[in-house]
Amino acid sequence: MGGSGSLGGSGGASPADGLDGSAGPVAAIGKDDAFGRFLSYVLRHNPAAAGIALDAHGWADVQALLAGCARAGKAIDRDALALVVRENEKQRYSFNSDGTKIRANQGHSIAVDVELAEAEPPGRLYHGTARHRLPGIREAGIRRRSRRHVHLTDDVRTAIEVGNRHGEAVLLQIDAAGMRREGHRFYLSANGVWLCDYVPPSCIAIVPEHE
User: Fold this and answer.
1) What EC number(s) does the entry state (predicted)?
2) Which CATH number among 1.10.1040.10, 3.40.50.1820, 3.20.170.30, 3.40.140.20 corresponds to the domain 124-210?
3) Architecture of domain 25-104
4) At what angle do helices 78-87 and 62-71 cross, to 10 degrees?
5) 39: part of which helix (H) or strand (E)?
6) pLDDT tens string 131-161
7) What pTM, to 2 d.p., does this model score?
8) Tens digits of per-residue pLDDT, 75-114?
9) Domain locations in the chain?
């Protein structure tokens, strides 16, 4: 008998909810920072941590990933994985068209080609960093270090959040138009991150209120 309060009724909780309306196990894992860090590590840096391999374009087989997560003590089902992908604030991950493969959209330290298309950036972009890194940036510019690209954004708040991860944040304004005139190439990832190989010191300015 299905009254309005039953799980099957229009007023019932969804499968991701607890019976009391609180977040259930599927919803909870969508917000699980520990699992998110593990997924990022596997898909961007070390697929062997889950006993899987990525193809040349960074794709992992979903079933192999789920089995690998279970072996690593990070068990998750397909629905919960889809929730992680959907609810990730920075939209770091994508499924392929039939949902059988998954990859990180950018941020890799391993050699994969995520098929980025060259794109024309806005005239100004931003990069958040920590104050203690400024001397090196002033001297040598922004280098990609262990990653495949330098990460830039057109959103000031995002840049500041990134800078805060590493210490006292400093906001840098990037003369993307000037870089283009000098021949630098830009790419736009599927989740809206602007990427390039290097930012020279001549195209970097500290935003005054963050100096």
Assistant:
1) 2.7.1.-
2) 3.20.170.30
3) Orthogonal Bundle (1.10)
4) 100
5) helix 33-44
6) 999 999 999 999 988 788 999 999 999 999 9
7) 0.66
8) 999 999 999 999 888 888 999 999 999 999 888 889 888 8
9) 25-104, 124-210
Q: Compute the distance between CA of residue 137 and CA of residue 118 in angstroms, rounded to an integer.
A: 25
Instruction: Please spell the DSSP secondary structure of 55-123, one letter per residue.
Output: -TTS-EEHHHHHHHHHHTT----HHHHHHHHHH-TT--EEE-TTSSEEEESS--SS-----PPB-PPPS
Give strand pairing partners of 174: 125, 204
Q: Which of 120, 110, 90 is nearest to 191 (CA)?
A: 90
